[in-house]
Prior knowledge:
By secondary structure, this protein is of the alpha+beta class. It has helices at 17-26, 35-47, 61-70, 91-99, 161-165, 169-185, 194-201, 230-244, 251-270; strands spanning 54-59, 81-82, 85-86, 109-115, 127-131, 141-143, 166-168, 209-213, 223-228, 274-276.
Amino acid sequence: MNKQMPLDPSYFSNEPWRDRVLRWLNAPEQADSFLGSNVRLIRQIMEHEESGLRVVVNISAHALLTFLSERRYRNLYERPIIGGVRREPSPERLQIDQQLDFGPCAPHYYFGAVALGGTGVRFYGEYCMALAPSAVDGDSQIFDRDSYDLLLPPLSNVADAVRMLRGKWDGDRIDMLLLKLLPEVRGTHRLITTGTVSEMILHDQEFVEAHLHMPNGFSPTDVQELRLSPDEMALEARILTRSNAGFPPTAVEIRWLSQRDAVVRALEASGLHYRVVTLHGRGYQWR
Length: 287
């Protein structure tokens, strides 16, 4: 029988996140000429008032059009219609919400991811809504990873996993993310850039989760900006270029282009700021 390896106590601990970071940095094996400067740069990048950390929520084109029309974002407890089907929380979602101690307030929680730049977790939708800092309560809970990980080993076998992996937006987000990034930064022979930090904070579907308690949900006025991926812009340009060259788009491509056009028109009508996001280099960290 295979014996399960214990979790690393320097990471999986009930200590405050700042203490875990200090413990990691003070360990003799972490000695690194560039580490101190990189830690300072990462903090400066994430704390920057204009372009620092944000809570982002990804959304599909259809759901975005509904959001702009109804002016209210709906979670699965409100049984929204998505893709022509009325959706509701899965048994797994209900189980996780119970583990997260949401209790009877579960229908009032909205999930997001913590991001610096980029276009969020595109698995949930190609449009990324970055919430304004004023829309995120400082006492909001954040979670070290996708909460669905609680359903799988080894975390499913750890009774204290939720307590070890959660924190608060105001007090813990910088240190929680620092602890996430430090193993990746260790051993580098150069100073880190903003684009690299952005990529490490949210990579594919690996992210820090935000749990926003909002009894009234949120509206477009709570969204600082909508971020569009350059990948979709490039695909749109390619389809139009091929069409102009005499290769008609498929029915699926025509529908996709039509939906994107509807989104742009709705965004213009709503006054919601939107932009195509690209990664950046050193940028403001040297100011």
